[in-house]
């Protein structure tokens, strides 16, 4: 049931890439500052740019891939590999665990505003992100 809730709710918002990234950067400008192509720029002025849309698609594609793999123990190594790749690409840029946690908070805020984020849905999302973040943080520590 949780897996169904996770996948169903994600399918509702996964094409709102730009809006999701905008919500994250609006809530946590320190995250935006980690990306040289966006640092120091006015968020509203770059929201409709190709660079912003491209980066938003990368982020949402990562989440979509993790969510599509969720639910099968056979896919755990693939999710671990995705988490390791994310850690490898972000750690050298100084993206911290705290900033990944901020991203998660902003994502939850966005989800709560755009889907039916009832108790079972929140539980599903919490479990999925707890699992993924444990893998990500482990990879950041190695």
Automatic annotation (TrEMBL):
Q: Which residues form a coiled coil?
A: none
Protein family: Belongs to the globin family.
This protein's GO CC annotations: extracellular region; hemoglobin complex
Answer yes or no on keyword NADP. no
Residues annotated as transmembrane: none
Q: Which InterPro entries does the entry mention?
A: Erythrocruorin, Globin, Globin-like_sf, Globin/Proto, Mb-like_M
Tell me which CDD domains the record gives: Mb-like
Q: What is this protein called?
A: Globin domain-containing protein
Q: Determine if Transport is one of this entry's keywords.
A: yes
Q: Which residue range or ranges hold the Globin domain?
A: 1-141
Q: From which organism does this entry originate? A: Chironomus riparius
Keywords recorded for this protein, A-Z: Heme, Iron, Metal-binding, Oxygen transport, Transport
| PROSITE patterns xrefs | GLOBIN
Which GO MF terms does the UniProt record name?
heme binding; metal ion binding; oxygen binding; oxygen carrier activity
Question: Would you say which domain of life the source belongs to?
Answer: Eukaryota
Any one Pfam family match given in the protein's UniProt record, by short name: Globin
């Amino acid at each position: 049931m949780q897996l169904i809730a996770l996948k169903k709710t994600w399918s509702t918002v996964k094409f709102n890439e730009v809006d999701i990234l905008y919500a994250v950067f609006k809530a946590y400008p320190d995250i935006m500052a980690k990306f040289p192509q966006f640092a120091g720029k006015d968020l509203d002025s770059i929201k409709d740019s190709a660079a912003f849309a491209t980066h938003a698609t990368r982020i949402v594609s990562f989440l979509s891939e993790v969510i599509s793999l969720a639910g099968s123990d056979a896919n755990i190594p693939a999710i671990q590999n995705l988490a390791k790749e994310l850690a490898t690409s972000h750690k050298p840029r100084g993206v911290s665990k705290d900033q990944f946690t901020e991203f998660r908070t902003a994502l939850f805020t966005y989800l709560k505003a755009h889907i039916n984020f009832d108790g079972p849905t929140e539980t599903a999302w919490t479990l999925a992100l707890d699992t993924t973040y444990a893998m990500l943080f482990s990879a950041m520590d190695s």
